[in-house]
């Protein structure tokens, strides 16, 4: 790896993201870190995303386009996205999420200074379909620093969800990300968390306590109707991690996990209820 001028691959799996894609690509191209390659993976889009992708590729020579004529499952497109990375580090961003202009440069500084880190995550703000901020998340009690693998996994799960973040909020060492492949659909609503935990087989975690990424939720999002499925999958996933020795939870810790998970589910329901009501009132 070139420590003096490392290359970051920003990979963007895209499927019918036309309403938000320009904003996402603008946030990537506006990064203060300039030594980046941008790989756009068009998963058979038919909503105008292809034309947007082609327009951006003509404007910026850092952009490389891969296109599938027929739609493949999302987890397979995510896998191909990471496989396409040629840089020393890789960030995966979905076609409706955003990163602040200094996001990559600040994470890159952490990764270069800490060679035993597999990935670094920042905090995310939750935004609605129009980009208005709903709330900002702060994981790991608002502290920055390196966290050993098992501690990071346990703290994340004890919080009732994925404090490791993933996608736009995370910058991976490419070697660790590729070693963690493939993405799977065994837990279809936990592919971020599952992948993050496998990436931690190859180094520790670093939490950078700055809000530098945005995750978009919409009132018409499929996830707004799948809260119960997410909860069930997370319970099963934690039981699997316990059985294979990845984590250890005492009975009291298991109770705390379930309590925090229930609070997270309630928070999601409130957010989606708020978005639906606001959308219907317009």
UniProtKB/TrEMBL annotation:
<dbReference type="InterPro" id="IPR029044">
    <property type="entry name" value="Nucleotide-diphossugar_trans"/>
</dbReference>
<feature type="domain" description="Glycosyltransferase 2-like">
    <location>
        <begin position="9"/>
        <end position="158"/>
    </location>
</feature>
<dbReference type="GO" id="GO:0016758">
    <property type="term" value="F:hexosyltransferase activity"/>
</dbReference>
<dbReference type="InterPro" id="IPR001173">
    <property type="entry name" value="Glyco_trans_2-like"/>
</dbReference>
<protein>
    <submittedName>
        <fullName>Unannotated protein</fullName>
    </submittedName>
</protein>
<dbReference type="Pfam" id="PF00535">
    <property type="entry name" value="Glycos_transf_2"/>
</dbReference>
């Amino acid at each position: 790896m070139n420590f003096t001028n490392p290359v970051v691959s920003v990979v963007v799996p895209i499927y019918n993201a036309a309403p938000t894609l320009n904003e996402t690509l603008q946030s990537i191209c506006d990064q203060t870190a300039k030594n980046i390659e941008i790989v756009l993976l068009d998963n058979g889009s038919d909503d105008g995303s292809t034309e947007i992708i082609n327009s951006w590729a003509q404007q910026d020579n850092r952009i490389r386009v891969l296109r599938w004529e027929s739609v493949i499952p999302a987890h397979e497109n995510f896998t191909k996205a990471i496989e396409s990375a040629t840089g020393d580090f890789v960030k995966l961003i979905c076609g409706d999420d955003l990163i602040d202009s200094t996001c990559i440069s600040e994470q890159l500084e952490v990764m270069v200074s800490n060679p035993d880190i597999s990935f670094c995550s920042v905090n995310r703000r939750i935004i609605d379909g129009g980009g208005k901020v709903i709330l900002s998340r702060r994981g790991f009690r608002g502290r920055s620093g390196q966290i050993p693998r098992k501690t990071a996994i346990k703290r994340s799960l004890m919080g009732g969800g994925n404090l490791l973040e993933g996608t736009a909020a995370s910058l991976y060492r490419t070697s660790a990300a590729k070693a963690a492949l493939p993405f799977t659909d065994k837990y279809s609503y936990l592919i971020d968390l599952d992948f993050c935990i496998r990436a931690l087989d190859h180094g520790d975690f670093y939490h950078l306590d700055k809000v530098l990424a945005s995750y978009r939720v919409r009132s018409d999002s499929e996830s707004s109707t799948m809260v119960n499925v997410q909860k069930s999958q997370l319970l099963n996933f934690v039981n699997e991690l316990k059985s294979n020795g990845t984590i250890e939870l005492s009975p009291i810790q298991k109770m705390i996990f379930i309590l925090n998970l229930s609070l997270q589910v309630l928070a999601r329901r409130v957010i989606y209820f708020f978005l639906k009501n606001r959308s219907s009132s317009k």
